[in-house]
Amino acid sequence: MTLLALERVSKSHWRGRHEIVVLDAVSLEVEPGELVAIFGQRAAGKTTLLRIAAGIEAPDSGRVRFEGRELGSGRFRRLTGIHPHIGWVGRQGPFASGMRMLDHVALPLLRVVAAEEAERRATRALKRVGAGDLASARWHELSDAERTLVTIAHALVRDPALLLADDPTSGLGIEERETVLGLLRAIAEEQHMAVLATVPEVPDALRSHRVMSLGDGELIQAARRASGEVIAFPQRRDGRA
Amino acid sequence: MSVKHAVLGLVIERPGYGYELIQRLEQRIEGWRPSETAVYPALRSLRAEGMIRAREASADGAVVSAHRGVVWYEATEMGHDEFRAWVRAPTDLAPQRDPFWLKVAFASPEDLPWLVELARELESACLERMTELGEQGGPVEDLRRQDVEWREIGQAWLRRTEAAQLAVRIEAVQQIRAAMKRAIQRHEGRLGPVPAAPSSEPEPR
Predict the structure, then answer these.
(1) Which of A44, A182, A236 lies closest to B200 in CB terms?
(2) Is there a contact between A161 and A167 (Cβ–Cβ < 8 Å)?
(3) Which of B35, B116, B140, B141 would best serve as a mutation to test chain A binding (most A beta carbons within 10 A)?
């Protein structure tokens, strides 16, 4: 069973009377154990795509299936109410600036388990991302790379089946990017989790199992074909024969 | 960069024979499709010039029986010298050779639906190449170890550079695709529907 499937998802934003097609019949599937990277320039619609995949935003048309069931379109209005099996890696820090990172990471669990257990799992999540020493640090003391790691731990703490990462490498240096993407790949492989990450630059995508690109509303995927095979042309994007 | 220098570089890296060299070259450097027609003449001419010489077996001699009759090549001293001179010689800016852009530049409005589809294919091919590049090498952080040879680092950068160039191509293709779609709409608005939008039938090439 495919973990996450978007089927001909379309979405437009309106700017006055002008319709801006952000997603034009976008289809994609993500399986457990793989890191899938979506490359696209700024304002290409990457975040919209992730928000729709997370069920935070509703598509104008098309369907999103997660774990075999249709994700209630736009049901989870706020990130805090996101599907329990989906982890979101964004750029948001803790809601209270003085919070220790351990508490910040433990927070999503507090409604689920006892405080002690939440803290134990949060410690484990921080260690998993190599940020165990940041447990008592505050958000404003962290570098951009450290913030990204903490955000990943925050998303991991509920043991999700799918991790959605919104430009996790933006603002980072080359080596920090490698660290973050290497971590996401390792998480996908070792924990058999599906990771869908958007990346602002293509070299980042080298660390993924599959690369797709989003631009002009269209999601293009790598054509996996035997070498020497002639492309049937013209080919329809919607897969109809 | 010529096929000859690429072949010489590969032979310097380690001895090889024709088919094996073709495979190594294809894996490393995209876009040449360096078929037999390019590699074998390069080998012949390198040999005639004394840059490489034939030898009986592979370096370790272990796979001789599996490749009976195959000619292995290794670089001569002269070959090493020539390659070094080429490495240190100035490099020209490479020309834009992608025929897609030539097509775009000279297409008529009726061709645009096909070119939009071609743009998708091209983007998809770029992504496929990207996946290949990703499979070829580990992370850059591994290359900071003390015991890594320069060639490994250099080739990691070759991959990274190629990926960056692919990125530029993808962006350009996305933009031209959007521009062509707008042009099609304008054309439709003025002249009615565009004749013969791409059908699902494979076109004869």
Answers:
(1) A236
(2) no
(3) B140
Run of H or E including A151: helix A144-156
Query: Helices (H) and strands (E) in chain B — how many of each?
Result: 7, 2
CATH number of the domain at A1-85+160-223, out of 3.20.20.70, 3.40.50.12160, 3.40.50.300, 3.30.70.330? 3.40.50.300
**Residue ranges of the domains in chain A?**
1-85+160-223, 92-159
At A40 the pLDDT is 86
| CA distances in angstroms from A41 to A86, A202, B124, listed in the order given | 25, 10, 16
| Least CB–CB distance from B199: residue in A41, A201, A234 | A234
* Residue bearing tokens 């002639």: A230
Mean pLDDT by 10 residues, chain A (241 residues): 90 85 91 92 86 89 88 57 86 83 88 86 92 90 92 92 92 84 92 92 80 90 56 43 39
What is the CATH number for B32? 1.10.10.10
Question: What is the Cα–Cα distance from B126 to A31, expressed in whole angstroms?
Answer: 22
Closest CA to A90 of A193, A167, A181, A13: A167
Q: Is the peptide bond before A234 cis (omega within 30 degrees of 0)?
A: yes
Cα separation values, A164 from A37, A51, A112, Å:
10, 9, 21
Global ipTM:
0.73
**Nearest CA to A222 among B134, B181, B114?**
B134
B23 belongs to a structural domain: yes
> Given CB atoms, is B143 within the 8 Å cutoff of chain A?
no
DSSP A50: H
B54-95 residue pLDDT tens:
886 555 554 554 556 788 899 999 999 999 988 888 877 766
Tokens matching residue B170: 């993808």
**B166 with A202: Cβ contact below 8 A:** yes
Of A175, A211, A241, the CB nearest to B127: A211
**End-to-end Cα distance, chain B:** 30
> Which of B32, B53, B88 delimits the end of a domain?
B88
Indicate yes or no: CB of A175 within 8 angstroms of CB of B140. yes
